[in-house]
Amino acid sequence: MWGAAFVLVTAAIIAWFEVPKLVRRRYHRELVVFSLLLLLGAITGTLKILDVPVPNPGDWVKVILSPFGEFLQKLFE
Amino acid sequence: MLSTVKISNRQMTIITCLFSIGTTILVAPSTLAANAQQDAWICALLGNAVGLGLAWLYISVGLFYPKNNLLEINERILGKWLGWLASCFFLFTMLLSSAQVLFYIGNFLKTNMFPETPIIALHILFLLVVMLAAHLGLETFARSIELFVPLLLLLFFSLIFFLFPSMEIENIQPILEADGKSLVKGTLTFASMTYLTLPTLLVFFPVCLTDPRSARKYFIAGGLIAGLKLSMVILVSILVLGPDGSILYAYPSYTLAQRISIGNFLQRVEAIVAILWFFTIFVKLSMYFYAGLISMTHVFRLRTYKPLIIPTAFVVAVFSLIVYPNTAYMAKWDVDAWFPYSLIFGLFYPLLLLVVGLIRAKTKPGRDPS
């Protein structure tokens, strides 16, 4: 619980310091990407700390590549 | 943005070398010994021959357009949409690899030095330095790494030198006992761990070089020096620990450092030797992270990467706990998924660029004046 709060507060502090700079310089695209990344980090971080299973990109790679991987394994057996 | 940054060819060699050594130095002896037992060092030497060809391939792709980085080359060679997709793939690889390398160093530190510290604290500490490196830029990074090279060489050769008393030649005998298939597999494993990550560096080289014309020589030299150093570590590991010992330990090169004992006086120097791994992993992680940031600016068409350093580091820190939930998963993923993935990233993708690039150069003689 405290960990989740810590993650969210950290994200809020980062936004607090960085967003005004971006707005002042009219970096709108940068601001959008910045917010998306920060949201991604904050949400997955909170879920991870609350022990909610988070999808693992490594698993996707493994699933997508499994036919190719099996082919390679057969090659060397 | 990157074109103003200039570094020398020697600095490129150093970065290439330390980048290839990267995390491989920690795990290479056990992975290779598992494939070919006492002949692992032969695999490593053969792997260097493969690596020579791979390094040549990468720098050839880079030299197609010496004034463009890999992401611009993607677009120029593959066209707007396909190039953009390739850049997305590259960005994904960079972020995934950053998180994985971060877990490598965190796991190593937690297992060997900080058993009570939560792993995320180690990750954040390590990431802070990497963020600073990305903030200060490639020039500063290259210069500071160059400063540390004498220290790293000293550490590396003293590790090997001090282990001479504990080497036993029986450990590598009988030579060439492994059959052809496991030799080939070991060779490819070594090449995939050491060389197939090198396309990452095409984001910086040869764009950021003061003298791109001689880049080929220096880039290949960097890769080869790294490969030879790794082969030496593998050979020493087998000579000292034996093939079974090398397989048994999670971090054989660290165990090697623990074995150093000169006259019952010079002992327990492993923490000092571990500095060597910190540096190579720092270089690897910084390059992945920095290349990730640069590719982000290309994928999303941004003007600067600087505001993205902190949120990207945040994402990498969180995902470092997710991509490898534990060491068993890591070992399995590295065998099942990394090998095919690295083949796609390090072999098929640059080959595609080279082939399409060659066809384009033939049909349309409008190459960059270099």
TrEMBL record, chain A:
<feature type="transmembrane region" description="Helical">
    <location>
        <begin position="6"/>
        <end position="24"/>
    </location>
</feature>
<keyword id="KW-0472">Membrane</keyword>
<keyword id="KW-0812">Transmembrane</keyword>
<keyword id="KW-1133">Transmembrane helix</keyword>
<protein>
    <submittedName>
        <fullName>Uncharacterized protein</fullName>
    </submittedName>
</protein>
<feature type="transmembrane region" description="Helical">
    <location>
        <begin position="31"/>
        <end position="50"/>
    </location>
</feature>
From TrEMBL, chain B:
<keyword id="KW-0309">Germination</keyword>
<feature type="transmembrane region" description="Helical">
    <location>
        <begin position="271"/>
        <end position="296"/>
    </location>
</feature>
<keyword id="KW-1133">Transmembrane helix</keyword>
<dbReference type="InterPro" id="IPR004761">
    <property type="entry name" value="Spore_GerAB"/>
</dbReference>
<feature type="transmembrane region" description="Helical">
    <location>
        <begin position="81"/>
        <end position="105"/>
    </location>
</feature>
<feature type="transmembrane region" description="Helical">
    <location>
        <begin position="187"/>
        <end position="209"/>
    </location>
</feature>
<protein>
    <submittedName>
        <fullName>Germination protein</fullName>
    </submittedName>
</protein>
<feature type="transmembrane region" description="Helical">
    <location>
        <begin position="308"/>
        <end position="326"/>
    </location>
</feature>
<feature type="transmembrane region" description="Helical">
    <location>
        <begin position="117"/>
        <end position="138"/>
    </location>
</feature>
<dbReference type="GO" id="GO:0016020">
    <property type="term" value="C:membrane"/>
</dbReference>
<feature type="transmembrane region" description="Helical">
    <location>
        <begin position="40"/>
        <end position="61"/>
    </location>
</feature>
<keyword id="KW-0472">Membrane</keyword>
<feature type="transmembrane region" description="Helical">
    <location>
        <begin position="145"/>
        <end position="167"/>
    </location>
</feature>
<dbReference type="Pfam" id="PF03845">
    <property type="entry name" value="Spore_permease"/>
</dbReference>
<dbReference type="GO" id="GO:0009847">
    <property type="term" value="P:spore germination"/>
</dbReference>
<comment type="similarity">
    <text>Belongs to the amino acid-polyamine-organocation (APC) superfamily. Spore germination protein (SGP) (TC 2.A.3.9) family.</text>
</comment>
<feature type="transmembrane region" description="Helical">
    <location>
        <begin position="338"/>
        <end position="359"/>
    </location>
</feature>
<keyword id="KW-0813">Transport</keyword>
<feature type="transmembrane region" description="Helical">
    <location>
        <begin position="12"/>
        <end position="34"/>
    </location>
</feature>
<keyword id="KW-0812">Transmembrane</keyword>
